[in-house]
Amino acid sequence: MSNSEEQFKRYALKIRCLVHYGKGGKIQCCWRNCQVIDPDCLTLDHVEDDGNLNRQPSGRRRAGSSFYSWILARDFPEGIQVLCCNHQQLKEIRKRRQKQTLPEGSDAYKRGVNKGRIKAQ
Ligand SMILES: [Zn+2]
């Protein structure tokens, strides 16, 4: 297969994933009121940050086309959503901030740990 065929195949697979996990079955960021629909600005995100589910045998997290192939092989598992790059980053920033500001041992902290949002120390 030529390079451009390979690229096209990967892009088509990404589009399939974006349609499946996008807001209302469309290619769109799932963040509230976000209107981003450009596939080049959209990525897949683990809703509960349980990225451990799709680690490679080496322990590295699957990303990009490897992640899309993983999804296809498992017939589109649940727990994944489409986010634009900005909201992916915003989610990450808020997660870190929450981890820093919640007193360890508080109920909110424990809830975060239980849902996998805060990495237990
Ligand atoms: Zn967004």
Outline:
With 121 residues, the protein is mainly alpha-helical.
How would you portray this structure in words?
With 121 residues, the chain is mainly alpha-helical. It has a domain of 82 residues. Helices cover 45% and strands 8% of the residues. Strands 1-2 form a two-stranded antiparallel sheet. Helix 1 packs across helix 2. It is globular, with a radius of gyration of 16 Å. It binds zinc ion (ZN).
Quick tags:
globular, two-stranded antiparallel ribbon, single chain, 121 residues, mainly alpha, 4 helices
Structural class: mainly alpha
How do the SSEs run, as a string of H and E? HEHEHH
Count the DSSP helices.
4
Largest sheet: 2 strands, antiparallel
Walk me through the topology.
Elements (H helix, E strand, L loop, with lengths): L2 H19 L20 E5 L17 H10 L6 E5 H17 L5 H8 L7
Helix pairs in contact: 1-2
This protein binds zinc ion.
